[in-house]
Design brief:
Blueprint (H helix, E strand, L loop, with lengths): L1 H13 L9 H5 L13 E2 L5 H10 L11 H11 L35 E3 L62 H6 L1 H9 L7 E7 L2 E2 L4 E7 L4 H10 L5 E10 L13 E10 L8 E3 L2 E3 L3 E12 L4 E3 L6 E5 L13 E8 L4 H17 L5 H5 L9 E9 L2 E10 L13 E3 L2 E12 L1
Antiparallel strand pairs: 1-5, 2-11, 3-10, 4-8, 5-7, 6-7, 6-10, 9-10, 12-17, 13-15, 14-15, 14-17, 16-17
Helix pairs in contact: 3-8
């Protein structure tokens, strides 16, 4: 009787097609990248974690099982050094520390950033020694925009605009001479501010002094500052859930809203801006060159610096999960088609909890459908149970796109993550922040 049940179950899982390595079409078709909003001094609460969690659960629409039979699973064990549904513990060098660091299953102390744990800098990967930034003083103690709207400027209409002739926020930076878009980008004093900025403690520099700001799917918000204060940007990023990078830059903005105003060509102000990201920031993602507002005012950007702690950040272990392990030094992923239960892409910041919720929802769906049999777990391999998942940030042509999750019926060691996507047609894909967890 038992052999008959086993053969039936084997036929069920053998009928499941082996998934492709990654769903590149889903990544390519992610929503357009975003960045800081205009006409406001700050923006927060951009990422809706509750809605993202709901989307992770909703991603499970049908039962799923791994194609491998129990006999094939035993053969896989010989190659992956896993036994039944357990893998032996191996020291995780990416997280170990000479002063008491841990291997699997332990995290370093949690900072105020509730979305991550940070690996001590003494054991960090590829993070140079850094010192805190000394803020560069603003050119004026008050915003240059204060009281500068001429009294002769009056609203013409409120059609399709907001508060015509209204002063725009802040403006603590120096105004370039000549006061033109070209003059702003060419101003050597502004470039000097960016070039002289020191890397903040815990962050590595990823680019300096570009004339464009970051746009990506991993946007978390921004602030307008009173100076080019890299240290305060880093401190704020540390308090934002999921933030692992920031972009600080200077932006030429209109002193007042020229749309539907009798003075359609405002003078300029210079804003110091800092944007926050749930991924690394790269030069390839710096595609925001500004825009034209009103009847022709040119917003442009200069002195754009990027800083990241992505390579030294460990995701907080989701409830019900264990053994956080950096996969393939963070740049490779698990690809085991015979034990893969499913995969899904979620645009947005790197959020490992999405993978955990996706895995739990898939297990619940399988249990409710009656295909998760106790005897399968008893013999050591259940093709319908997610025991292990790999979550990572996927990038297309250098730009972060979102969290990618892969579910597996058996556990693997970090060294078994060897797949790197590379070129797919005309697009190049790569991975950062690749982590695995056991259920």
């Amino acid at each position: 009787m038992r052999s008959a049940i086993f053969l039936g179950a084997a036929a069920l899982v053998a009928a499941s097609p082996a998934p492709q390595a990654l769903d590149f079409a889903a990544v390519h078709n992610a929503p357009a990248p975003t960045g800081p909003a205009t006409n406001v001094a700050s923006q927060a609460g951009v990422y809706n974690a509750a809605a993202a969690s709901t989307s992770a659960t909703a991603a499970v629409t049908a039962v799923a099982s791994a194609p491998a039979t129990a006999a094939e699973k035993r053969s896989l064990d010989k190659r992956t050094f896993c036994w039944w549904f357990w893998c032996p513990v191996q020291q995780n060098t990416a997280q170990s520390s000479s002063n008491g660091g841990s291997g699997y299953g332990q995290n370093s102390p949690q900072p105020t950033n509730t979305g991550y744990n940070t690996v001590p800098m003494s054991t960090a990967m590829s993070a140079p020694a850094t010192t805190a930034t000394t803020p560069v003083a603003a050119s004026s103690p008050v915003p240059t925009s204060t009281g500068i709207v001429p009294s002769t400027c009056t609203p013409i209409s409120w059609t399709n605009t907001f508060d015509p002739c209204a002063p725009q926020p802040d403006g603590y930076g120096p105004v370039a001479k000549p006061d033109t878009a070209a003059g702003f980008v060419a101003d050597t004093s502004l470039h000097a501010i960016a070039k002289s900025a020191k890397d903040p403690q815990g962050y590595a520099s990823t680019f300096k002094d570009l004339t464009a700001a970051v746009n990506a799917n991993t946007y978390l918000g921004f602030d307008t500052l009173k100076s080019y204060d890299v240290a305060s940007c880093a401190a704020k990023c540390d308090t934002i859930n999921l933030c692992t990078s920031f972009n600080i830059y200077m932006e030429r903005d209109p002193a007042w809203n020229g749309e539907q105003c009798s003075c359609p060509m405002p003078n300029s102000i210079t804003n110091y801006k800092c944007s926050y990201w749930g991924s690394g920031v790269t030069p390839e993602a710096a595609t925001n060159n500004g825009q034209t507002r009103g009847d022709g005012f040119q917003v442009v950007i200069t002195g754009s610096n990027g800083y990241s702690k992505t390579n030294t950040t460990t995701p907080v272990t989701p409830p019900g999960c264990t053994k956080p392990t950096k996969c393939g030094a963070g740049g490779a992923v698990h690809d085991h088609p015979r034990t893969c239960i499913g995969q899904h892409f979620f645009p947005g910041p790197f959020d490992i909890s999405l993978c955990a919720n996706y895995a739990k929802a898939q297990n619940a769906k399988n249990v409710a459908s009656g295909i998760w049999s106790k005897w399968l777990s008893f013999v050591g391999y259940n093709p319908s149970k997610c025991n292990f998942f790999n979550g990572f940030m996927i990038k297309e042509n250098g730009v972060a796109k979102g969290t990618y999750c892969k579910l597996f019926a058996q556990q693997y060691e970090g060294s078994a993550a060897t797949y790197q996507p590379g070129w797919q047609g005309s697009a190049h894909y790569e991975v950062e922040s690749s982590w695995s967890f056991c259920m």
